[in-house]
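Exercise 3.2. Students should predict the tertiary structure of the chain below and write it as structure tokens, then compare their answer with the key that follows.

Predict this chain's 3D structure.
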Amino acid sequence: MLKVYNLKDLNAKAVEDLCKRNIDSNNHIRAAVTEIIDEVKLNGDNALKVFAEKFDGITLDKLFLDKEEIRTIASGTSEEAKQALKLAYDNIWKFHASQLKTEEKTETSKGVVCWRELRAIEKVGLYIPGGTAVLPSTFLMLGIPARIAGCKEIIVCSPPQKDGKVNAYLAYCAELLEIDRIYLAGGAQAIAAMAYGTESILKVDKIFGPGNQYVTKAKTIIQSESQTAIDMPAGPSEVLVIADDTANAEYVAADLLAQAEHGIDSQAVLVSSSAKIIEETILELKKQLIVLPRAEIAAKAIANSYAVLCSDLKEAMQFSNTYAPEHLILATDQWESISDDIINAGSVFLGHLTPESAGDYASGTNHTLPTSSYAKAYSGVSVDSFVKKITFQHINKEGIRNLGPAVEILASLEGLQAHKNAVTVRLKDSLE
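Answer key:
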């Protein structure tokens, strides 16, 4: 069950240590992932088939599902599930479509005009996790902004089920997203395949998608070695709940367990100014845990989690900013007074009636978010993640006369005569 700490008993080093998670201190994960990547680089499709047999327990005749196979599998989706997925699709599309904006041109000096234009990343790879849970919601969260951005090639990889297929919900999402092929590859080997390319899988320019520590490590390795970018180091899921005496312990426990059931390496943290709420939440965790289908997984994650008692909400927020959670829930009537103090968080859920599950599925925001304190430097996935912003500038005769002399001086200061000359020859012509 949750370990409980009192913040007044922790010094700065103890707080820092408490906020660390998923550290591969002995490089065991790196070593295993490097071996997988090297094998995929060397043996391509054949390596993926070998790994499918080793990790997924399935012998694959081919590495992908085509459009007809996807349609057949999708036909097994119930009408109720289709409606829920379509509602999520519509809300996610609506929220992300609002992010696609054209910037105005700026005249920085008379005759000098600068601006930026969006261009879609041409080839993107989407990793849809499988493992202990298959996540059609992640397919929507990645596929929708890719479509809105206008990416030309969208490569999708997901681990095969025991029947060598994907489930009906993933197939239905593929139809909604107009994806005609799903590659049956999971884990670090899928990341390697998209980063380096195989006989079947196209090398992409950027890879998106969350995963376990092996997937995350593979993404960080290929980013430095393959000339393929990644969205962020999005590893095992986590939530931090800030709660005071106005919180509902039943709600808080449900939110903690919602993260804990993702996997044994997930983390759920409660930071509260009320010892009573911590006690009541622990009782609720015990009560709710025993009825969960994934109770064994959730229990292991909860055992890896903790609660922190602090003096007030300000202190709670200071701890949260140090932890930098993927998901932050403010379970307090006072959320409006403390939300401006949030510095580091992937996505925030305000008030008692806003569960993190809403953002995971259907409110419209994206659930592919930075974990392991990377919220201090990264944002979650958005349309911006799938585009490049290219700067443009145009200078006319008046502009080169106004700007040119300053550029000549600056180039001279740096001792770059050719830079200066590129302006000088134009100034000469503009004055004629």
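Discussion points: The radius of gyration is 25 Å. The chain has three domains: 3-22+236-364, 28-102+121-232, 396-430.
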